Amino acid sequence: MKLFSASQIREIDQATIENEPISSIDLVERAASTCSDWIIEAYDHSVSFHVFCGMGNNGADGLAIARHLALAGYSVQVFAIAHRSSGTSNFTRNIERLAEVKLDVHYVNAKKEMPEVDETAVAIDAILGIGLDKPLRGILKDVVQAIQEGYDHVISIDVPTGLPSDLDSTIKLSECVEATHTLTFQFPKLSFMVAGLGEYTGDVHVMDIGLDEEKIHDIDTPYHLTTGYDVVGIRQDRKAFSHKGDYGHALIAAGHKGMLGAAVLATKACLRSGAGLVTTHIPSMGCDVLQISAPEAMVQLDHSETSITSIPIPKRITAVGIGPGLGREKSSFNALTALLEDVQVPLLIDADALHLMSITDSWSKLPANSVLTPHAGEFHTMTGVEFGDSISRLEAARRWAKDHHCIVLLKGAYSAICDSSGNVYFNGSGHPAMAAGGSGDVLSGLITGLLAQGIAPLKAAILGAWLHGRAGEEVAIDRGEHAVVASDLIDYLS
Ligand SMILES: NC(=O)C1=CN([C@@H]2O[C@H](COP(=O)(O)OP(=O)(O)OC[C@H]3O[C@@H](n4cnc5c(N)ncnc54)[C@H](OP(=O)(O)O)[C@@H]3O)[C@@H](O)[C@H]2O)[C@H](O)CC1
Ligand SMILES: [K+]
């Protein structure tokens, strides 16, 4: 799914109006209908709706939704916030249409004019949408504060009021509605994808309002959200007459004394990826641990008992993953730099290997199209920058991927996969239950296994992140969100 900026959405809007054609007021009506249908489906008549409307088209949506809900027999009160001298024509027309359902509009000019709130009241936030272009102040700020203080349940239309739509750190967040649900038109907004901003949306529900498909196709954007449709076909179905040699041979280099579990997790995840064969290079002390934990894998023992000091790459290897539990010994760094010289197959670098590369600034040795899988802390070490917010961190990851001609999978919610052309693929699967030690080891083993099967690095990262997140969603349902451990993810990989 493509993701667009507010100005691009306006372009698509305009194309829809011209090409369908449909009048702007009817597009508002169509957008509002998708929301009222959703609300009617989700709430019974014991609820009373307090609809807060700005004076733009977001407000026009709110007025039309209020009308639809009144027609459906709900208790509705409408509050218009006078934040500008006049409303858009769609706003004004929808004010007039309230007469059809005998709804009055209460104009709110001061916080004290906000309504009394009882426990049946649900707020519908149709104050500002993609038109927000500055931090809230004055009456808008007061009203949003009052909504925050007064309502336990808020439905935001298109965008929570106060939240910028774009990845634009110049609009500093001041006051912002914290929605329970956000009913957003056609696409999630870019700001929904990053920590520090995405938290305000609550559950996001994408409302298809039939925008111009051709224009959506024609407008270029570097931002994408991976859905299940996007990963279909990345991994080919297995042929009847095939054998394990057809599915590659991954080498995992991982583990040191006290951190052998990371090697086990990465190995087992790699096996679950569908790779034909997996060999794990570990310190010799780990031999029994690995053979017992992952009998399907072969083991290549290091000369050292406790850490990795040299990593021979057997000829039959088709991809290498290095890093989980590697440790930060000088000897492991020497093994890593020697591997960078030798490796001729796709490479994934994770965890301590990222750290070692960073502290010795060995990035000039990075093979093109390598896949790096840092979390925010590791990315800080890679760049030496303490990022103040997720937007600047993401922009830095995009630059890093371009400058080093590699794939950077910046882990988080949502994980962002940056390619060397500046594109960003936000991963649409996942669950907070996955925030547990070892989850990253599973991801790096999984992606290494996909690389070993000949899947191109970008696609392997996208598919790996998707499968990893889907496993997390499924296991959270079965085990509950507090009891998930990284090993569970492996059992749920599909
Ligand atoms: N394709 C679609 O997604 C459709 C979306 N629709 C809805 O339309 C809104 C966008 O409507 P728009 O009128 O462009 O903008 P808003 O309603 O979000 O904002 C209204 C105006 O408010 C002013 N503004 C912006 N920021 C502030 C602020 N911090 N304080 C005060 N006022 C502010 C600004 O006007 P100014 O001239 O005052 O700058 C905004 O223009 C979209 O979100 C959807 O809800 C349509 O329903 C159909 C298709
Ligand atoms: K809104």
Automatic annotation (TrEMBL):
PROSITE patterns: YJEF_C_2 (PS01050), YJEF_C_3 (PS51383), YJEF_N (PS51385). Keywords: ATP-binding, Isomerase, Lyase, Metal-binding, Multifunctional enzyme, NAD, NADP, Nucleotide-binding, Potassium. It comes from the Bacteria. GO terms for biological process: metabolite repair; nicotinamide nucleotide metabolic process. CDD domains: YXKO-related. Residues 227-494 form the YjeF C-terminal domain. AMP binds at K411, G412, A413, Y414, S415, G440. The keyword DNA-binding does not apply. It catalyses: (6S)-NADPHX + ADP = AMP + phosphate + NADPH + H(+); (6S)-NADHX + ADP = AMP + phosphate + NADH + H(+); (6R)-NADHX = (6S)-NADHX; (6R)-NADPHX = (6S)-NADPHX. Residues 9-217 form the YjeF N-terminal domain. Its EC number is 4.2.1.136, 5.1.99.6. InterPro entries: Carbohydrate_kinase_pred_CS, CARKD, Nnr, Ribokinase-like, YjeF_N_dom, YjeF_N_dom_sf. Its cofactor is Mg(2+); K(+). Binds 1 potassium ion per subunit. GO terms for molecular function: ADP-dependent NAD(P)H-hydrate dehydratase activity; ATP binding; metal ion binding; NAD(P)HX epimerase activity. (6S)-NADPHX binds at residues 57-61, 129-135, 158, 262, 325, 375, 441. K(+) binds at N58, D125, T161. In the C-terminal section; belongs to the NnrD/CARKD family. NCBIfam families: yjeF_cterm, yjeF_nterm. Catalyzes the epimerization of the S- and R-forms of NAD(P)HX, a damaged form of NAD(P)H that is a result of enzymatic or heat-dependent hydration. This is a prerequisite for the S-specific NAD(P)H-hydrate dehydratase to allow the repair of both epimers of NAD(P)HX. Homotetramer. This is Bifunctional NAD(P)H-hydrate repair enzyme. It comes from Phaeocystidibacter luteus.
